[in-house]
Amino acid sequence: MSDPAALPGMAATTLPATAAETSPDNPWPLQLLSQKLKAHIDRTPSAWVEGQVIELSRRGTNAYLTLRDVDAEVSLPASVWSKILDRQNMPLERGSRVVALLKPEFWLKTGRLNMLVRDIRPVGLGDLLARIERLRQALSAEGLFADSRKKPLPLLPHRIGLITGRDSDAKKDILRNAALRWPAVEFELREVAVQGNAAVSQIIRALRDLDGHPDVDVIVIARGGGALEDLLPFNSEELVRAVAAAATPIVSAIGHEADRPLLDDVADLRASTPTDAAKRIVPDVAEELAGVRQARDHLRRSIGRLVDRETDRLSSLHSRPVMAAPEGMITLRAEEVERLLRRASAAVSSTVVRAADQLVHLQTQVRSLSPQNTLDRGYAVVELAGPRAATKDNPSGHSVVRDPSEAPAGTPLKVRVALGQFGAASTGTVQQGMKEGEAHD
Fold it and tell me: With contact defined as beta carbons under 8 Å apart, do 173 and 275 qualify?
């Protein structure tokens, strides 16, 4: 049907082969465009989609319904055979969450696009929980829930950003309890839808607005309790990633303990209820004042104990003898120095005396060994009086007579005695040897 030659009354050469070749002077017939659209759409495969039934009506063997996206304001009409609806275990109603196998089809005569439902299945609570758990595991594997990514909350926020439902109890609880704890607290409110298709987009828009506000130090996303279907926006992957990307600390205050939404895992702090969030984001002024008083009392007692302890130390120092008579320390040291001087002087004197005695002793020894001492005992030294040539053994040239044969008769001699010397001449008398007693006279 896409071949221009197939059109009745039209020559193949008179029609453009492609849409790009058409012109005001050479257009396509409308039926050719419709045929080409139908051929293209017929090649489109079927696809499973998820949505919420917002309209449903039966007309004989056919039924017509409208599906809306669960997170965006997008809807799509569809048709389904009544027999497909009849085989469901539970009848479909408006508001039911379903997954449907859709095949697009183009009605050639009217130019309408229709979505034919080939199969449809309701999404039960167990299915939702399983899907949320799979998403939780996938996001956790990415590290979005890691404690290392958690940002600390300020001790006293300058201004608190609050994202909550319009005129909701959660908003009233947070404003009232926060004001009771810290009367000067300030809020930057953003009222949004907290359930339904528009909730995710509105919450993300408000989150990004508050995250860029220069005075907002912490952001609270709050909602009261509700059924799992009502809390589905807080399990949205898009919202979880937006919270993870925020630079401002985020507090999740979804008042539902049974089913923990993914927002609780990615938030920097999870509060069990909006009231609990108010208690955890601002301090209690009464507790803080009591803490200041307690700290002041503790500081006063500590300073008092310190002053008393130092006063006792000063008294103890004043009572010591060295403080009563400071010169005593100098006197004691002076006496010690004087005692050491006396000991040093006595040691030097004793050393000098011992050295003098040793010197006298050495002099006595030296004198006892001198030749003069021998002469004083009556001995004499006999030398040849004539000059002799000096030799290596006798450098003075004198010769001491040791053998009578060295002084024959008439040999002039020089005799040295204790008090001097005199001349003599040898008689030549020779006496061999001496008695033993005479040798030691």
Answer: yes
Q: What's the distance, CA 420 to chain centroid? A: 108
Ordered domains of the chain (ranges, CATH): 4-127 (2.40.50.140), 146-283 (3.40.50.261), 374-427 (no CATH)
- How far, in Å, are 371, 379, 434 from residue 439 at the CA level? 17, 11, 6
Q: Give ∠ CA 10-14-16 in degrees, rounded to 5.
A: 110
Residue with tokens 């293209």: 40
Distance from C-alpha of 271 to C-alpha of 279, rounded to nearest angstrom: 9
Q: Who's near 202: CB < 8 A, 6+ residues apart?
A: 192, 193
**Average pLDDT, integer, range 61-88:** 85
Sequence-distant (≥ 6) Cβ neighbours of residue 149 within 8 angstroms:
143, 244
Does residue 117 contact residue 99 with C-beta atoms inside 8 Å? no
CA distance 240 to 243: 5
Indicate the pLDDT class of residue 241, thresholds 50, 70 and 90: very high
What pLDDT, on the 0 to 100 scale, is given for residue 1? Answer: 44
| Interatomic CA distance for residues 427 and 196, integer angstroms | 167
Question: Beta 97-107 vs 112-122: how paired, if at all?
Answer: antiparallel
By CB atoms closer than 10 A (0-12, 13-18, 19+), residue 104 is middle
- The terminus-to-terminus CA distance of the chain in angstroms comes to 173
> Residue 194 and residue 236: Cα distance in Å, rounded?
12
Q: Give 422's strand partners.
A: 415
Among 32, 250, 64, 239, smallest CA distance to 153 is for: 250
Q: Which residues pair with 103 in a beta bridge?
A: 116
**Confidence at 346, pLDDT banded by 50, 70, 90:** very high
Which residues, listed in sequence order, are joined to residue 50 by a DSSP beta bridge?
99
> What are 106's strand-pairing partners?
113
Q: Which of 244, 251, 241, 198 is nearest to 221 (CA)?
A: 251
Overall residue count recorded for the chain in this entry = 441
d(CA 335, CA 59): 130
205 by Cβ neighbours in 10 Å (0-12 / 13-18 / 19+) ranks as: middle
* CB-based contacts of 117, cutoff 8 Å, min separation 6: 65, 78, 79, 80, 81, 84, 100, 101, 102
The model's pTM is 0.52
